[in-house]
Amino acid sequence: MAALTAVPARAHEPAHWEPKDTASPTVRFRGLAAVDRDTAWLAGSAGTVLRTTDGGASWRNVSPPGAGDLQFRDVEAFDARRAVVLAIGEGEASRIYRTEDGGATWTETFRNTDARAFYDCVAFFDRRHGLAMSDPVDGRFRILSTADGGRTWTVLPSAGMPAALEGEAGFAASGQCLVTAGSRDVWLATGGAARARVLHSADRGRTWTAADSMIPAGDPARGVFALAFRDRAHGLAVGGDYRPDQSSPDAAARTRDGGAGWRPAATPVSAYRSGVAWLPHSRSAALAVGPTGTDLTTDGGRTWRTVDTGSYDTVDCTPDLSCWAAGEKGRVARLER
After folding, report:
1. Which of 62, 105, 197, 265 is at 20 to 30 A from 70, Cα to Cα?
2. Confidence of residue 337 (pLDDT cuts 50, 70, 90)
3. Cα–chain-centroid distance for residue 33?
4. Over the stretch 17-62, which tens digit does the pLDDT of each residue have?
5. 242 Cβ partners below 8 Å, 6+ apart?
6. Taking 80 as the threshold, does the pLDDT of residue 89 lie above it?
């Protein structure tokens, strides 16, 4: 495992991804919620949800009963006991579950009954207020809202949502196509259309504006796959073309004005990247991950370089200086120094 030597570390020690055995070699974990250095939740294929409270030394299978046919693509955790998971798919395959006891029991709090909707991501502003997003229905992205921690959900009016472009949709690749910063700001990433856009709302999803991300699109497999904002102004976007036989040039961009305008990276990520996260308490360092490796920026997304070649789909960092990554074949790792 290559050392991430450029990652800021205590006492200038090199950092590296340290694999954690989940004993789930057939599961692909695209959903990841890192609570702290000890606690993390995973959500993946075949209705699988895992949780660790000892830094990945052991994992408990806390999958909701009867969910084996579902594809969990996003998980949002408030602590070691409370979490919300999103299953994706057309019609009733899109569901949301909530637990208050570390996954010992689950409550299904939302089941999509509109055959036209396909939910991709869920995100929370705080422990009570959150949103989930669906691909366009009647020409506009659909937004689901909760004000009670995911116990109940309501579809928001679509009047404040700009019209979707032809073929435009979200990518349920890492749980990072919908992200928040602060108490009211939220961003939505798109692809599949002539242009890959980032939509922004400053009022918890009621009204939105759209901006060109500068990441190439023009194909159903291309666009913005993940966003990360370290505050309401500074954000990163990564993506590309998820097909392994296709190149992904210019697949990273940055914003300093809350997503109103985006600038392509001078030296972009080296290949398709599906996940991105700012390093804890850093104003300039971030990691981007994908099936072919991990890229690092130390200048706020202006330039990126590959620092590891392991396959990961999603990445998440926590205030206690911990970063986790997860992906195919049950792969999970924590950044060690």
Report:
1. 197
2. confident
3. 9
4. 999 999 999 999 999 999 999 999 999 999 999 999 999 999 999 9
5. 171, 173, 221, 222, 225, 272, 274
6. yes
